């Protein structure tokens, strides 16, 4: 067992840029037409409440936006169908989440080739006609502005394509061709309404420093007033495949943080782009959607640590993805299949969902930040904190944390008496994956199995009363291996009914 003690200063103010709830990823946009997808997103919005959502396939053929027809003279004309787009965006609006628009992939009839990616065959080739591409982008944006209002839609960030540095996502990973796509698209969007914010290049991994530097050099040469830069962030080694699954080894977090810092340094080395916002439009541990790690408490503890640091050099960071209705490798065989999501199929929250739920509450002045905890003091004077105990190889130990927090009693509170409420997510208290395993790993869940798994996926709530001493409140947390613990500490306000005694009610003598 490891033990750490921290004493918080009265005047503590620590830098902590918390944007855990800014954006979340989704599978291709067309999946939003499914009932289970909508239910999973509604659950995530209830428990976390993200501001934006980003996904692939806005222009893929399953959305049906781009069409062509021939007139009586045999001449081809483009036309646009926004029926499915409206259904998706209407539902996002109902759930109070705005799109972070990713422009891609290529409609088949507008594509220059037939290379596709994923089970659902997203076309990843450049447009055969850039004028047609620009017209498609503008027609879509104008439709959205007409339907939802220009003042609203121009607030939606616009990202050009996805991972063009990887040949699977952009034919031949052709840098010059992507730069052309970006230039043409940037101009088309700004011509539609200059208030739109446009960015890229949404690169991931391979030659990332080269791509970012070359991209900024291109924007400088073309005098493109870039609004923000985007990149992705994954933290595992290449998966080892076994059957339907990819097993991975986690990288030390500092490797990833160092890589993110290199992006910040490159951006800031360009005078005209110094301080430019960087959005991580995808991040997770593994980059494959069949990785059992995603379903574990280990993933939750590792991601909690990531959430404590990702805001240091980035404007936002979008977890990939909110739910497991997702088909890059095909339709999954079981509810726990290692999907990216915060929610397993069947509407079962995974442990990582609660890491985001806890960080959403960390609003106020940060008074403590370490490699195992973040604590803030809200405007209401309440202390809120999250602690984690991440392990890399499953051989960790329980962590005992003690915090001494400076406090004062309020006018209507018993002097020095505080309530400390904890919510615990670890392998003993909130582990739906183990419960599913113990059930026999059923591929098709009965209603009773779903009910039990949902019950087993909630944090364990504990509480205690403590008296402060010498203006300090002692908060003690036990964080087991791969655990995440949230706490709130606030003054007790007595509102007991006449004659009521809690001690007598539980059969104990009065103190």
Automatic annotation (TrEMBL):
Q: Which residues form the active site?
A: 163 (proton donor)
Domain named Glycosyl hydrolases family 39 N-terminal catalytic is located at 20-474
GO biological process terms, alphabetically, are: carbohydrate metabolic process
Q: Which InterPro entries match?
A: GH, GH39_cat, Glyco_hydro_39, Glycosyl_Hydrolase_39
Keyword annotations: Glycosidase, Hydrolase
**Superkingdom as given in the UniProt entry:** Bacteria
Molecular-function annotations in GO: hydrolase activity, hydrolyzing O-glycosyl compounds
The UniProt family comment states: Belongs to the glycosyl hydrolase 39 family.
The protein's name in its UniProt record: Xylan 1,4-beta-xylosidase
Name its species. Candidatus Eisenbergiella stercorigallinarum
Q: What is the lineage of its organism?
A: Bacteria, Bacillati, Bacillota, Clostridia, Lachnospirales
């Amino acid at each position: 067992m490891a033990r750490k003690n921290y004493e918080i200063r009265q005047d503590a103010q620590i830098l902590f840029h918390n944007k855990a709830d800014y954006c979340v990823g989704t599978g291709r946009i067309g999946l939003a037409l499914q009932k289970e997808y909508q239910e999973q997103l509604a659950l995530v919005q209830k428990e976390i409440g993200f501001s934006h959502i980003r996904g692939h396939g806005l222009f893929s053929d399953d959305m049906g936006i781009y069409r062509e027809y021939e007139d009586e003279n045999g001449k081809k004309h483009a036309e646009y169908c926004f029926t499915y787009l409206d259904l998706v965006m209407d539902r996002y609006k109902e759930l109070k989440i705005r799109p972070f628009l990713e422009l891609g992939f290529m409609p088949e009839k507008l594509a220059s080739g037939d290379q596709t990616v994923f089970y659902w065959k997203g076309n990843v080739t450049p447009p055969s006609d850039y004028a047609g591409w620009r017209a498609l982008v503008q027609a879509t944006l104008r439709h959205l502005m007409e339907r939802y209002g220009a003042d609203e839609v121009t607030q939606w960030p616009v990202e050009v394509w996805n991972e063009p540095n990887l040949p699977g996502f952009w034919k031949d990973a052709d840098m010059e061709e992507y730069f052309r796509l970006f230039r043409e698209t940037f101009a088309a969007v700004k011509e539609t309404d200059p208030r739109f914010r446009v960015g890229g290049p949404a690169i991931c991994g391979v030659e990332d420093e080269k791509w970012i530097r070359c991209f900024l050099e291109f924007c400088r040469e073309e005098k493109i007033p870039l609004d923000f830069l985007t990149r992705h962030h994954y933290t595992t080694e290449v998966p080892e495949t076994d059957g339907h699954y990819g097993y991975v080894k986690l990288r030390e977090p500092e490797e990833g943080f160092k890589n993110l810092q290199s992006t910040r340094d490159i951006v800031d080395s360009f005078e005209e782009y110094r301080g430019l916002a960087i959005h991580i439009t995808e991040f997770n541990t593994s980059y494959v959607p069949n990785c059992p790690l995603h379903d574990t408490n280990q993933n939750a503890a590792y991601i909690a640590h990531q959430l404590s640091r990702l805001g240091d050099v980035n404007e936002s960071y979008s977890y990939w993805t909110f739910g497991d209705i997702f088909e890059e490798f095909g339709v999954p065989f079981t509810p726990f299949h290692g999907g990216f999501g915060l929610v397993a199929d069947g509407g079962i929250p995974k442990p990582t969902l609660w890491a985001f739920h806890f960080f959403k509450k960390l609003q106020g002045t940060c008074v403590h930040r370490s490699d195992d905890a973040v604590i803030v003091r809200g405007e209401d004077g309440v202390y809120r904190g999250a602690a984690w105990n991440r392990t890399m190889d499953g051989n960790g130990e329980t962590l005992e944390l003690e915090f001494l927090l400076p406090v004062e009693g309020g006018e209507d509170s018993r002097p020095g008496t505080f309530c400390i409420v904890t919510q615990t997510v670890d392998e003993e208290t909130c582990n739906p994956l183990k419960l599913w395993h113990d059930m026999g790993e059923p591929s098709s869940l009965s209603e009773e199995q779903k009910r039990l798994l949902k019950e087993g996926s909630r944090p364990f709530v504990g509480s205690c009363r403590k008296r402060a001493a010498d203006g300090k409140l002692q908060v003690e947390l036990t964080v087991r291996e791969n655990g995440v613990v949230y706490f709130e500490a606030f003054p007790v306000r007595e509102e007991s009914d006449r004659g009521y005694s809690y001690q007598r009610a539980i059969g104990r003598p009065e103190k």
